Amino acid sequence: MIISTRKDTSFQRRRGIFQRENYKYRSKHRNHRNSRHFLFYFSFCTHVSTLTFGIQHCKSRDIVHTMIDVDFITSDLSKVKVFTSVSLFCGIVYFVAKLNKTINSILVFCWACFVKPLIQKKTVKTGVKNQQQNLELFYKNQAHIYDTTRTVLLKGRKECLRLAISHLQKKKDLVWIDIGGGTGSNIEFMNQISSISKNFKAVYLVDLSPSLCEVARNRFIAHEWTNVHVLVADACDFTIDYKSADLITFSYSLSMIPTFNAAIDNAVSKLDKQGIIATVDFGIQSNDTSIGRVNTLGGLVNRNIPWILRNFWRIWFEADKVFLDSSRRNYLEYKFGTIKSVNQYNKTLGKIPYYIWVGCDKARSSQILTRLNCLATESPYLAPYTSPNAQITESMPVSKGHEAAIANLQKNLPFPSLYYQREVWRVYYDEMNHLYEQFKNQYIYAFTWEDPREDHNILNFTSDDTVLAITSAGDNILSYATLPNPPKRIHAVDLNPCQNHLLELKLASFRALKQDQIWQMFGDGRIDNFTDLLIDKLGPHMSSNAFQYWMDKGTNAFTGKGLYDTGSSRWAIRLGKLIFKVCGISKHVTALCKASRIEEQKQIWNEYIKPVLFNRIVGSFLVGNPIFLWKALGVPANQAKMMGPSVIKYVIDTLEPIIERSLISEDNYFYYLCLMGHYSRTNCPDYLTTKGYKRLTGQKSVTGDIPIDNIRLHTDLLNDVFARLSNKSITIAIIMDHMDWFDPNGVDVINEITAIKQCLVKGGRVMLRSAATYPWYIKTFESLGFKCEAAAIRKSGKSIDRVNMYASTWVCTKLESDDENSGDEVVVGDVDIAKLDAGRRRMSSLKI
Ligand SMILES: C[S@@+](CC[C@H](N)C(=O)[O-])C[C@H]1O[C@@H](n2cnc3c(N)ncnc32)[C@H](O)[C@@H]1O
Known about the structure:
Rossmann fold; seven-stranded mixed sheet; globular; alpha/beta; binds S-adenosylmethionine
């Protein structure tokens, strides 16, 4: 193909003129041009350029006619077409932008954020002198479209304000400083949450950009808010008319402040001792930037931003002088105590990482250190609010939380996040404990699979009891707390943090929700506005770790198939449903759950369900399969061995008597839930009944305590919990079937029984269930000074409780005669402690 060089030179020259003109125009009008000028000029220049180009080429073609072949004409024509199309496109964009406000805003936004910073880098060689000029260069032309374009980009702003308000104890006469407040849209958002004119004594919007402040000022005038003040000032050194503020917020501003340390220090000096500081911003934390201070962060869910996103977004935003580096959030988390922290992605714009963080005065919790230690350890030196400096003696047990808090104090770090929470339910746990990894950040049981009614029949709880029990889904813990005379303290223990997140959610619901909302969540297992409830109502009553967990998983858990289709145990339920469906008996299963007479129930069972469940295929592939038993039912190999020679027979002995015992529709919420996926109002755990709701939320007559306040959640191995509890402080330990899991040839069982014994009072009882009628470890209990009695032994055809899952229930009572020897021996010296794997430490061993 022959190419006309003259044509190209001419074209380039013309294009060059266009570019120069364009640049000259932009330089000349840098200070007063606006976006509309730019769009118009861009479109105009493109038109002129294209037209000139077309004419030029017509002429060229005449002159060099002889040199041109057909190829050239075709290619030249196609270039004309391209430029005409571009020109037309630009024209259309220009007119649409003129007519449509949103498109105009988007174009200006794209120009200001994506194109202009790149051009500026080349043209403004000398650089801008100070930050204010910088900000003006960026914001001046887009101040009028700022709000429209930031809705999609700046996610989480409303949630951040809602979370901050829900955590503020004070609700009236508030002083609020919004640092880097921009156009004041946050103050308008806040007005939807809490009335600006009624609840705020003064609101200060501090911003360094005069153009954005101008928009804010007009906005506030329109609202007639006389208590809102706009300060054109630097975040690092502004002043207000009050000594301190109840609320300070940084909404997407910290990442724009070059001197962020000074801005945060200024916020520290202005925040009231009881105040709240809240931030929402882009940020790119990684696991590596969290090392050494994990317990101060309030949870690690989604905190580690993948390498590619970390680097891409950091570089991308740097062009706009927005800095996503982790140092800003780190400094916040160093200067304040972390109350809540959430890590999210803005998925609309391609997974931009952002976080919401709520904090408070770092020193706020020092006075409750002793109290929290006592609550976690059952220390007799319980120091209530009134005597924070109660004497700490040599024999006072020390919780892991106390050790962590003291260690942080020595390094001038904030206390662990759990120390800044409103509720004291959750006991500190070390998030980095590798034992938690096995649970893969999910719970196994969404409901508890043991019958608390039978527990009470056997143990007869009184308000003098201090109970320790395994959490599971927390249903039985709440059932004990619902009793007319509930135990004075209940320690719920689970190694899986998510089981305790589930119980924490239930506790927070009893603190903050109405009965009907609680029913929707835990009776139906579904609720529409879960995240709203979490932010506005439940959040203040939860640890940051549990809050993060439910922010991440809650919406899915409480929609669709609901809560009872979550947790690893859902696989067993799903499989059961699949078998019923494939075998065409689903309608009979529903009929079984509706049956109103035992005879009817028996007939449905014998005719339709039993033949399907107990056929050979289901038997050998599922019930007799160790992988299924472990993965779906949580039955480990050691326990499966204790079931006897035939697992199928074990299952038949479990299920058959259930059909004869009581109506599934009325008095067996365990099986009803598995088959129906939800509870019914008359067939549910006690804590979901009206009586239960009243008891859990109302005042207890004798002591004046609310029963849920006496619950403590430990996320640790049972042995580690026993080791940190005071000697002789527990009257009842309910350890479920957990000892079945131990190896009969190992020492675990000896360690655990010794540790339990140490915490039990004289005559204290251990209640356990087992897959064996006579579990092998009963002998170990007896040899270590317990008297063991079978409270129930299952026989073929007879049930021992409504679940009837276990072959026996035992009560092992600590013998008084053995008590004096055992209690003191075990706690003397570190050598014995190490041997017993109990890890008990004394106050004197701590370097304070
Ligand atoms: C992305 S905007 C966020 C505005 C507003 N908070 C919002 O959420 O819509 C960041 C704001 O921080 C302000 N800013 C940046 N550096 C500042 C400083 N040193 N002092 C005060 N404000 C500053 C900017 O002017 C801008 O208004």
